[in-house]
Design brief:
The complex is a heterodimer. By secondary structure, chain A is mostly helical. Chain A has helices spanning 5-27, 36-54, 56-62, 65-88, 103-134. Chain A has one domain (5-134). Chain A starts with a helix and ends in a 5-residue tail after the last helix. Chain B has one domain. Chain B contains three helices and no strands. Chain A binds chain B through residues 1-4, 7, 10-11, 14, 17-18, 21, 25, 32-34, 42, 45, 48-49, 51-58, 130, 133-138, and chain B through 56-57, 60-61, 63-64, 67-68, 70-71, 74-75, 78, 84-90.
Chain lengths: 139, 97
């Protein structure tokens, strides 16, 4: 579908907006609808549109699968790392209050990091699932 | 009051699009009908936001629906044309649809 000009140009215009909106949903999730899971899915949807229009080979060269596997683990490590950090600060697992002197600031930082971890993992998993289904006939 | 009338009109239009999507003889009728249904869904979300009195939350959801709905249409069209989501070439002469 790479030689279809309408689809190619619309995809090139809309993909940055999808990624920007995913970041908005990620970081504005405290005050509006959103959060890590939704942001990860929307972020992956931008890459899935790229894979649909330009083919899975182009998507594979844009986000190589071995990088995706690293990101899947990285999000989980970030999530668990926040919990272990609070454990090391002699509080309960994922007790965000211990992260800062001010409990409210600590909760803000804790939620931010945990949601970021969720977003990274979900986005990478969604792209991997799309590559696994749509790219199964690739050489 | 005017918002309620708009909402009722939109629901009538959605029903018509849904009937066309179910009955539609060709796949293009169904895709066009589901596309119109998605557009009207966005409008219903925005109108509901103004009816509920807190439009900013609903407009966020409507924006997301716009962006994701386009991807769904592209994916359905690609599967109906090629039977495969992955490849990048266009249809050539010898291909089976």
């Amino acid at each position: 579908m790479n030689d279809n000009p309408v689809l190619r140009i619309v995809a090139k215009i809309i993909i940055p907006m999808i990624l920007l909106f995913a970041l908005y949903v990620q970081f504005h999730g405290d005050y509006g609808p959103g959060g890590g899971f939704q942001a990860g899915v929307i972020f992956a949807a931008g890459f899935i549109l790229y894979g649909l229009v330009f083919g899975t080979e182009a998507l594979r060269s844009a986000v190589p699968p071995h990088i995706l596997r690293i990101f899947i683990a990285l999000g989980l490590v970030l999530y668990a790392g926040v919990g272990v950090t609070t454990l090391l600060m002699e509080a309960d697992f994922l007790a965000y209050n211990a992260l800062s002197q001010d409990p409210v600031a600590g909760q803000h930082l804790g939620i931010f990091l945990v949601e970021l971890g969720v977003g990274i993992t979900v986005g990478a998993v969604m792209i991997t699932v799309f590559l696994g289904f749509a790219g199964r006939n690739d050489p | 009051m005017i918002l309620t009338i708009v909402l009722a009109t939109l629901l009538v239009g959605m029903t018509a699009a849904l009937i066309r999507a179910i009955k539609g003889p060709t796949v293009y009728d169904r895709i066009l009908a589901s596309n119109a249904l998605g557009t009207k869904t966005i409008l219903v979300i925005v109108v509901l936001g103004f009816l509920m009195g807190d439009p900013s939350l609903y407009i966020d959801i409507a924006l997301m629906y716009v962006l994701i709905g386009f991807i769904g249409t592209v994916a359905v069209l690609k599967v109906s044309e090629f039977g495969d989501l992955g490849q990048s070439r266009s249809r050539t002469e010898g291909d089976q649809p």
